[in-house]
Amino acid sequence: MANALQADAITVQFGGLVAVNDVSFSVPEGGIVSLIGPNGAGKTTFFNVLTGLYKPTSGVVRLGDEIITARPPHIIAKHGLARTFQNIRLFGLMTAEENVMVAMHSHMRSGILRTLLKTPHQRREEAQAHARARELLDYVGVGRYASEYARNLPYGDQRRLEVARALALQPKVLLLDEPTAGMNPQESAAFVEFVRRVREEMHVSILLIEHDMSVVMRVSERITVLDQGQKIAEGTPDEIKSDARVIEAYLGKSGVEGGR
Fold first, then answer.
1. CATH number for position 175
2. Nearest to 171 by CA among 235, 77, 88
């Protein structure tokens, strides 16, 4: 199976600190993969390399067959790599629909002149974008909030709005950073089913950073484990649960039991 996303020998060094050390990693086309590890393991740094926020000291990132290493984040997003953030980064004083529209403009072709002149082409494209934004809001289950300020949405629905905005970029790969943070067990369980539905119906590959081991074990097809910037294990959920290095570094007895 071809890889939708491939990172080869990624190293990130900040002065004398090696945050990520020679990590290779892949997300297969149509796969759901999780990246886990204790706090400070290098997960977010690695995510930031994939999305262009950080330039690696060495190594190569490919999206499909295209090298995207250290390209600007908006260029990487336009080529099909979208993400959400651990700390929600919605535009609070824009409506839910406007938040999705912001992402859609990267694929619109009217340009500044047509927009200023409000040409027929621009008006058609804008109408289509509004309709698509509403479709995405309905798809993620927050359509009733289309005209509400994003900051007024319940927390779990803000998470879903972030996913709608990411999907508006028409991604090939969707990166979810702590998507169930702050959710109760029922919300987390519903989100697991939602992630599977997005993969199947939107035909995207999905990579998660997630601390909730019950979520990780239920949704992932493969799991990669980082500790102190190094990859210490990789495999199926069953393989990871029984890996002594993972148990010692991160899961512990309670973590393993939580994934059952």
1. 3.40.50.300
2. 77
Residue 232 falls inside a structural domain: yes
User: Residue 25 forms beta bridges with which residues?
Assistant: 7
Q: Give the pTM.
A: 0.84
Q: What whole-number distance in Å separates Cα of residue 48 and Cα of residue 244?
A: 29
DSSP letter for 144, please: G
Asked if 94 and 102 touch (Cβ cutoff 8 Å), the reply is yes
Q: Does residue 3 lie within any of the structural domains?
A: no
SS3 218: helix
Q: What six digits make up the tokens of 229?
A: 């910037």
Provide the number of structural domains found in the chain: 1
What is the C-alpha R_g of the chain? 19
Q: What is the largest CA-CA distance in the chain?
A: 64
Q: How far apart are CA 202 and CA 193, in angstroms?
A: 14
Question: Mind giving me the DSSP string for 6-54?
Answer: EEEEEEEEETTEEEEEEEEEEEETT-EEEEE-STTSSHHHHHHHHTTSS
Judge whether 2 lies within some domain: no
Write down the pLDDT at residue 252: 55
Q: How far apart are CA 63 and CA 67, in angstroms?
A: 6
What average pLDDT does the segment 57-82 reach? 93
256 pLDDT band, cuts 50/70/90, is very low
Residue 258 pLDDT more than 50? no
Residue numbers of the domain that contains 102 = 25-208+218-258
Q: Are 142 and 159 in contact (CB under 8 A)?
A: no
Scanning the structure block, which residue is given the tokens 């409000």? 118
